[in-house]
Design a protein that fits this description.
heterodimer, A: 185 residues, alpha/beta, six-stranded parallel beta sheet, 8 helices, 18% strand, B: 189 residues
Amino acid sequence: MQRLEATRVAVDLAGDAPIIGAVGNSTFDLVPFDRPRNFYMWNSMGMASSIALGLALARPDLRVIVLDGDGSILMNLSSLATERACGVTNLVHVIWDNGGWEITGGQPAGSPFGVNLETVARGCGFLKTATVDDLDAFHDVFAEAMADDQPWAIVGRVEPGDSPYRPSKNCIALRDRFKASLGHR
Amino acid sequence: MAPTFSIKRSGRHQAADAPAWAHSLLAAFRAEDIHHLVFLPDTVMGRLLALAEAQEDDFFTLVNVHREEEAVGILTGLFLGGQRGAMLIQSSGLGNTLNALGSLAMAYRIPFPLLVSLRGELGEFNPAQLHMGRAVPGCLDALTIQHVTLSSEDDVPTIVEGALKTCFTAEEPFGILLSAQLTGWKPEN
């Protein structure tokens, strides 16, 4: 499936849930579906999952979505163990798996070498996991995860390809808009 | 085995062993509504964490990370969600946080106290702790992160209160370095 189309499905089903976009194409493909509760990263590769965890701890009343990249989570695999160690139940962790570092020229990483990120998530204690490679299946499992009261890890296999979209480069404005959308000054 | 989330996070350390500086630090955190202690433990922080975990009103939540860089992200998410937290790490772990400190906490202006217990300073027995310990002030300076060093118990309440106030005014991390002069060093040779 296409990452852009899968992102459209995720935003459609998100309701008022905040979404953290990982640095690079995960954030870039979130931009056409812009809303105040989208948080866009410009660097700090790997941190998307940890930002989502902090937000999930701060706001147990919300389901918190992170649209992660395979390269990003491979840089911060320990965050999967931390997510479980914290015991949060309101996290929906989506990992776009395009088999490598797309934005730097499509160098292969992870799945082309047999790394199975769903298995990694299960090994870190996630009980609700899935790997999907078509849009209908993604729609169904993401809807199930959003309606659930348990943490989920969903690996979405997506086609390679760079996103043409970009968010604002004013990091503080990105921060303030997101924070205000959650009712915080 | 079913996961147990009520498990004691501070290990074998006991609140009764917490030194005066740990009481002062936690009192200052309370006064600034800092509820979340995001940590990767060392022996020095262990006593502070035990004291925090033993508070009768459960004011503090202990969040243990597995690599220090994670703490920068978690503290960012907490801030975006309207909560304050502190990072508690050892000097060797500061090296694991640098890109996230620069490209997330500084770029997006995320405030939190960054407590670093200093190895490689006074009374060090481990040669592999020397260089990263020594590099801590320089790393923070290079990132233009303001910092203070706590060396004596009498100074802790005032300096920490002032550091926290500046931290939240600046909306940036603020380093609070714990010298072995304050925390003591290991008897090992």
